[in-house]
Amino acid sequence: MEKAGIVGVGQTKYERKKDDTFAELVFEACTGALTDAGVGIEDIDNVITVSNDFWDGRTISSMAIQDAAGSYNKDVSTVEGDGVFGAMYGMMRTLSGSFDTTLVVAHVKGSEGNMNLITNAMFDPIYQRKLGIDATSSAALQARSYMEKTGATEEDFARVSVKNQGNGVNNPYAQIREKISVDDVMKSRKISEPLKLFDCSPITDGAAAIVISNEKGMKRFKKDPVWILGAAHFSDSYTLGYRDLTNSRALEAAAKKAYDMAGITNPLMELDVIELADAYSYMELLWYEGLGLTPKGKGADLIRSGATAMDGELPVNPSGGLLCAHPVLVAGLARIIEATLQIRGEAGDRQVKGANKALAHGINGPCGQAHGVFVLGS
Amino acid sequence: MDVENIIYHGRIKVPYKWYVGETGSRFFIGLRDNKELWGNRCPKCDRVYVPPIKTCWECFVPTKEWVKLKDTGTVESFTVTHYSEGVAPKDVPIIYGLIKIDGADGSLLHFIGDVEPGDVSVGMRVKAVFAEERTGSILDIKHFVPSNE
Amino acid sequence: MGKRVAVVGFGQTKGRSSRKDVNGVEIINEAVVAALADAELTIDDIDAIVIGNMDHFEGINYVDSWSVEGSGGVMKPIFKVTTGGTTGTTVAMCAYYHAASGMFDRVLAIGWEKNSESDTTGAIITAFDPVWERPNLGGAIAGLALEASKYMDNYEVTERDGARVAVRERLHALNNPYAHLHQEWMKGMEVDQLVELLVTSEQNQVLAYPLRMSDMCPRSDGAAAVIFASEDVAEKIAPIPAWMVATANRHNFALAGDVDMDRNTTMASASKAAFEKAGIKEPLKEIDVCELYLPYSYAGLKWMEDLGFCGYGEGPKLLWDGVTDMDGELPVNPSGGVMSSNAIGATGLIRVGEAAIQIMGKAGTRQVPKDVNFALATGFGGCYWADVMLLGKKKPA
Lengths: 378, 149, 397
Hints:
With 378 residues, chain A is of the alpha/beta class. Chain A has helices at 22-37, 53-56, 83-95, 115-120, 135-150, 154-168, 182-187, 249-262, 267-270, 281-290, 299-305, 321-324, 331-344; strands spanning 4-11, 46-50, 75-80, 101-109, 190-193, 195-196, 205-214, 226-235, 273-275, 357-364, 370-377. Chain A is globular. Chain C has a domain at 5-120 and 219-234: Peroxisomal Thiolase, Chain A, domain 1 (3-Layer(aba) Sandwich). The N and C termini of chain C lie close together (12 Å).
């Protein structure tokens, strides 16, 4: 199979409420990615946009940003889901031989909609939606199940928030840049028990874009690419109650496939940095297990050990992760951008020294139903 | 130049009706007419689904055998939710439970009620309370309450 | 270079005005089971899935997640693509690129809609910019009426010309057991007589001049699934795979006011790109059958010109000469097309599936009476989204 790599990245600063329109955010991210890649829009062969009709409050939501994405008279398509799936499609298109370069862009303005109602609409209207369940209350059920099964405690979840918010201080793009303590998390407002305010990611506005190129297209770019060494995605079942919420087997399958492609046998040893989707604090522990960093049920041990801290063996979310900025849909692309910057050595104050191999992760659906994983390397 | 940012408010209002389908309709008719919970069994893996499902998603075969379930179960997980957008017909705090119905595999998502939030625990036995007026919906079960059964 | 890819299986439900007996997940399952049976595969053989529809037609957010228990997506790679009316062809293209990338061998494409579950026009209105256009622009019908009246004025086209397209589509639909509209009363009547009836009957209500009821597509409940396979496995699955020869798309408009009402420029540009890739120089001569996303009658005149099948203003002549009828040089929409069946998210995918079965020789009573070497499928969607896919019998070089 042919190789593909990331040659340009761009993102807006993530904020609680931005005055710019969707198109303005997309234009900022796209021009940022093109500038970073050192090329113009004429060097882009096709475009993948990422948007969601519920979050944007309009049908065919990609129509709002088509001009800003620079897709005029080019092939263009739209993925509705996390940006990691947009990147997956963008990569496929460069590997297909039809296009050498793809621009992938995602946007969201969480401030313009109502997160609880929008995520309530992802539950089946016949059996579950009328109960008012949403992303946060369903996540709380998953968090409780995980505690019951593994003995992880609310303090363990708090340790994730403390670590990631501590990291976010170093990320100029992050929305929340404030150190907190375990005590702060434990005393924060109860949202949906056991989840408290500081266990939950914030509402965020922002956009992000990347340029992907195959080997043939590489000659258009001056910078060295960050290569995609492995990429995979899988979905588990949907209905809350049918799925074992404590077993992230879809992530396990995606990670295994991506590791196989990248020739990784011991991810904890071989990866240098991970950027994952910590939409709620406890998720990070569950995803540790899915990513094979620790045995099943031992996620809490890993955070307690400090192995995933900035000075640990395998830093996770140096950017502060979703807990410091959660632009829905954009989040997965932002993880890929952070992983790319780490490998390039361009991550500034949040740089992990000597990072050569990085993993980026995104999720879709309630309680992390579907997962996408990219392994990147120099 | 400083410009006042105009904010344009709107709400997407599209009427919907969702056809439950024959399989789910049987489940709701059981709730509405007889205060009964029915699940269905996969002929291949033997799993009993509630709510029922037309095709077993693990085995990808039709699940045609109906199984009458008890109206009792065990709390597998729960959360006490301190906010509401007005979708749920409940005042906050709302207690959601994943309830493993006796005789079924997997759990049913529903409310837990008539109990102090602090008294709910995983493993607790509960029993369905049916709504007085039943219309053929998931809300024909009012909620589950603690039970000794 | 990527892999060559072919369509190896196709399944669809019969279009109906409403399917009360199944919910969305269940109707998806019907199409998937039918496509697997057609390809003689099981769900275990499928390596990845792509699904699409339009969110606000059923009010389901994250349809890829919601539907896995019917689509077969549990513990498989799956995501959603959506582009409005083109969604079905967009799904097909995405499944094609999955296989062409070399990452997946057998990819299932699913498109579906239960238009009976909401107010279709109400949902379409929300496609327009909430600040600039939504307060004053109607749904799909008014916009298409503008295009039609402009076209009529430009080329002295009449309502009879539009009606002649409607007659073709509905007569073809009579051969297609899956079509939603089966207008049995048309059987045995002369084309001229039918055209006359459509333009004079008071029962055939004018919706927005010049468009009458008979000029428009219905809204349907339905689902379709198409299986794409890489060159490594395609010939083992299907005796005659329908190879993807070229595909291209365009969408150039952010606001409805940007649209060039004189020509369908995106359809022209996308088809030109695809024909160039395929080395097609004379589309009318080289292409054997078309399954075009014609949502309303006048598209069957004007867009034929934009696709390069005839010169500007010559669409009516092509039509009245019978070129696009079943026994003509270039049969268009043997299935009866969008005007006979329109479960919107499935509609484009059905075009691809129908084009493929013409090549595979599996179209039954709607098989065109000629050799099919090239079949063209298109998709059309909001603000002139244009998707083009050219399928062929010969394995591409």
